[in-house]
Amino acid sequence: QRVVLMDPTEDPDDILRANRSREKTFVFDMVFDHRATQEEVYVSTTKKLIGGVISGYNATIFAYGPTGAGKTYTMLGTDCEPGIYIRTLDDLFKALEAATEEMDYRVSMSYLEIYNEVIRDLLNPSSGFLDLREDSRGSIQIAGITEVSTTNAQEIMQLLTKGNKQRTQEPTAANKTSSRSHAVLQVTVMQKSQRQAIGEEMRIGKLFMVDLAGSERAAQTQNWGKRMKEGAHINRSLLALGNCINALSEKGGSRTQFVNFRDSKLTRLLKDSLGGNSRTVMIAHISPASTSFEESRMTLIYAYRAKNIKTQV
Question: In a 3-state reduction of DSSP, which class is residue 209?
Fold first, then answer.
């Protein structure tokens, strides 16, 4: 459960800095090394959330980390090693089928990207930029997004792979297929009892799976012009997310914290899933390379803060 981060620039013979080591230890719920399989990561991070979604709680899974550390691989995976998206949906459908004696259920999903603070539908890219709106109950909706209802995991895999090809990817010096946008897969499970009762209850559980764009330093990715602008937008929305996480993790403290969800489209979309009745998992990715020591350190601090969020469900 521990990550020890060693500073590559440290020199054992440097007497002046002998007691000023920048070695850091972080404690998490679970730490995986390079030998971990997709299945292991899925079982110990996401599998337990499915029961919650079926009983009407929200759940969110984030993949966070510097560019090129493997976020898209964890979430989408490859055909022979599917990632969290597919494994979660597979288990979700199995669990629903097992529990459908007296419940009618409908599963709908949408897949979108947030690029430069605008929202694009990845299942129907020709629809242009979409708006975030709040409905009368105060929940956030995306006007005009394509919703697909299906209970077949194979179909979904094809849809997601197709959607992922529509994602904005550009080469940078750090990664030749760097995702320049946050991809959000939103799955809504609606259930109602088949017996027509008077006060009929309806359970709605939302599952968000977010493949964030890589946090990046312009120096490392050698970005200029358009790439630089994208990087600024990416870092801005990640900063807004970080601010929300900070405010939420200090909420139980002495001062009442205001959580600014409206700072970016990403945090506004995830408002219910960060502070509401939801369970959140953050999978932080770090690279073992000594050149990315700073990135790894920032990523671990960020994820460590997220660990302190306590929500009242």
Answer: strand
Per-residue pLDDT tens for 88-126? Answer: 988 998 888 887 666 788 888 899 988 888 898 988 888
Least confident of 39-53, 86-100, 242-256, 279-293: 242-256
Q: Are strands 148-149 and 169-170 parallel, antiparallel or unpaired?
A: unpaired
Q: Is 60 annotated as a binding residue?
A: no
**Does 219 score more than 60 pLDDT?**
no
Residues 6+ apart with CB under 8 A from 146: 110, 121, 123, 124, 127
Residue 96 token pair: 């629903």
Q: Which domains does the chain have, with CATH numbers?
A: 2-307 (3.40.850.10)
Contacts of 41-50 spanning 24+ positions with Cβ under 8 A: 41/74, 41/84, 41/283, 42/83, 42/84, 42/87, 42/88, 45/84, 45/281, 45/283, 46/84, 46/87, 46/88, 46/281, 47/88, 47/91, 49/88, 49/207, 49/279, 49/281, 50/88, 50/91, 50/92, 50/95
* Structure tokens, 235: 């870092």
Q: If you average pLDDT over every residue of the chain, what do you get?
A: 81
Amino acid at position 194, single letter? Q
173 is in an annotated binding site: no
Task: Give the DSSP H or E segment for 105.
Answer: strand 103-115
Instruction: Tell whether 70 is in a known binding site.
Output: yes
Is 72 one of the annotated binding-site residues? yes
Question: Encoding tokens for residue 312?
Answer: 């009242």
> Rounded distance, CA 309 to CA 65, Å?
19
Closest CA to 173 of 118, 214, 117: 214
51 is known to lie in a ligand binding site: no
Is there a binding annotation on residue 299?
no
Asked whether residue 67 is marked as a ligand-binding residue, the answer is yes
Residue with tokens 């194979």: 154
Determine contact, residues 41/283, Cβ cutoff 8 Å: yes
Write down the pTM of the prediction: 0.83
Is 174 known as a binding-site position? Answer: no
